[in-house]
């Protein structure tokens, strides 16, 4: 019960990897601050977790596409007197299609969500953690950040930023009592592909999607061990290792074939 007075804040906590992480923290008696866009889903998730695990769940209905939302999350935790012991930046989205055809405004929203909100929340809470000499941060990157991704050029680019950012900040935090862990899943069975409008891509139609519960467990274990990163799944570890010794142009061509629409036979 040593964690019963501790709080973990998780974005994108009502489904997928974020929801599975929330359950793991709740199981270990962390109280939760969960963030998502849908008030009904937040209320449902909070009730489930409180009833099952006997913890306190605070909900913040925020749209992290909004420039001010991440700042508001920090300010509201302070107003409520909540010290955040663990931060999980999980919320993220992509958009499927060739770059010349996709919606630039949606892509700018995705850049803000995947990058800017992650940076704002990480800085805000890391400063408090360093001042206390204790804290943990888990930022969800992706193996997409290790390879160029035709049909998801902006998403892959944002995750490359996130992972590089994670490793740099974790290095700076050495000796402070605070660690930052980078979680790199592969394609996972969540609502991501539906939101990205890529259900017709080969990676969804013909590939084997990962289990979000297993991805969450890999991330949770690495976070608690203070590791700098974890690639979830042996197949994904092998893909990253291969991409590290393969020319980027060849990796891009391979990803083009994996992610193209199923009807595209060229």
UniProtKB/TrEMBL annotation:
GO terms for cellular component: membrane. InterPro entries: NAD(P)-bd_dom_sf, SDR_fam. Keywords: Oxidoreductase. It comes from the Bacteria. The keyword Oxidoreductase applies. GO terms for molecular function: oxidoreductase activity. The keyword rRNA-binding does not apply. Belongs to the short-chain dehydrogenases/reductases (SDR) family. This is SDR family NAD(P)-dependent oxidoreductase. It comes from Hufsiella arboris. The lineage of its organism: Bacteria, Pseudomonadati, Bacteroidota, Sphingobacteriia, Sphingobacteriales.
